[in-house]
Structures are given as C-alpha cells and as structure tokens.
Amino acid sequence: MSTDSPEAGPQVLLGLEQILIERSMTLTELSHRTGITMANLSILKNNKARAIRLSTLATLCETLGVLPGDLLLFQPSARPLEAGRDDAPTPR
C-alpha cells in the first residue's frame, strides 16, 4: 500500500502554475529564461515532484521576481490531531 496519497499527511506544493497565469507566461518562455527543461518545469508545475533543488528554486525565484515563500504552499494533513499533541499515537 502506498503512502503517497494526499490524505497521508501534510504536503508542500509549488504554486508555479498560478504565478505563470498571473504573469501571462508560458512554460516555454520560463524554460528559455531559466535554462530549466520543459519536462522538469512541467513536473514542478503539476506538483508531481517529490523534491526540488535549492538552486532550481533560487533560479525560479530570481526569474519570476518572487520569494521562496511566494512559490511554496503548505497543505496541512487531512487527519485531525489529538488535542494539544501532534505526535499522539492512534488509539487502539
């Protein structure tokens, strides 16, 4: 059984698609400006990446004129936490 489902826990996502829409910029144009391949940008835009190099994040931020916090989005876990504890064991 895979633990990669969105319900499995919190996720950090990339808001690249929204920033591109706001700037009326295509992936092709971003690829030309950054030197990052279309394939890699597509993976990032569609939130299929499991990781991102800090150098890639820095290049995107510089090119798009944003801060890392403008690109990175946090999606909390769908599981409720036990009152006051985020590491509480599941009751049996």
Structural class given helices, strands, pairing? mainly alpha
Radius of gyration: 17 Å
Helix content: 40-55%
Instruction: Name the overall outline.
Output: elongated
Key features of this structure:
single chain; 92 residues; mainly alpha; two-stranded antiparallel sheet; 2 strands
Walkthrough of the structure:
- It is a single chain.
- The chain is mainly alpha-helical and 92 residues long.
- Helices cover 41% and strands 9% of the residues.
- It has helices spanning 16-22, 27-34, 38-45, 54-64, 68-71; strands at 11-14, 72-75.
- Strands 1-2 form a two-stranded antiparallel ribbon.
- The longest helix has 11 residues, at 54-64.
- It is elongated, with a radius of gyration of 17 Å.
- 7% of the residues are buried.
- The mean pLDDT is 86.
- It comes from Actinotalea lenta.
- Residues 16-71 form the HTH cro/C1-type domain.
- InterPro entries: Cro/C1-type_HTH, Lambda_DNA-bd_dom_sf.
- Pfam families: HTH_26.
